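in:
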């Protein structure tokens, strides 16, 4: 149960940070392009990569790993989880699996997003 709360705290912080970045970008930059989301996704990828490297060296314990990756990065952007899982497939030598994962995630994900949107438009 303690780990559940650790992840929850990290998610709260990550989601709050994502919100603040969105507010900043929407006030300072042209909102016709999703600069905030793009920035959050790219920074989240960099952050989870750094954290992953630190965890491989055993420099951070498991509670901190949960707080910072599953919690903070997960609340900040799920794209960071997608990117680290893709990296893990590459490290395992599963290049084909990684390409399939990326293709399905992007193409099917966007298709399902559009399908969900269409579901709300009928009737």
């Amino acid at each position: 149960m303690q780990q559940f709360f650790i992840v929850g705290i990290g998610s709260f912080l990550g989601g709050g940070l994502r919100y603040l970045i969105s507010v900043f970008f929407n006030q300072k930059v042209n909102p016709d392009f999703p600069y905030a989301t793009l920035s959050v996704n790219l920074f989240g990828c960099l952050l989870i990569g750094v954290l992953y490297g630190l965890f491989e060296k055993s420099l951070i314990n498991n509670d901190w790993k949960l707080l910072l990756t599953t919690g903070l990065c997960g609340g900040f952007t799920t794209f960071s989880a997608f990117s680290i899982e893709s990296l893990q497939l590459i490290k395992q030598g599963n290049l084909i699996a990684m390409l399939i994962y990326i293709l399905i995630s992007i193409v099917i994900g966007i298709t399902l997003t559009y399908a969900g949107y269409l579901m709300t438009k009928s009737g």
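note: The radius of gyration is 17 Å.
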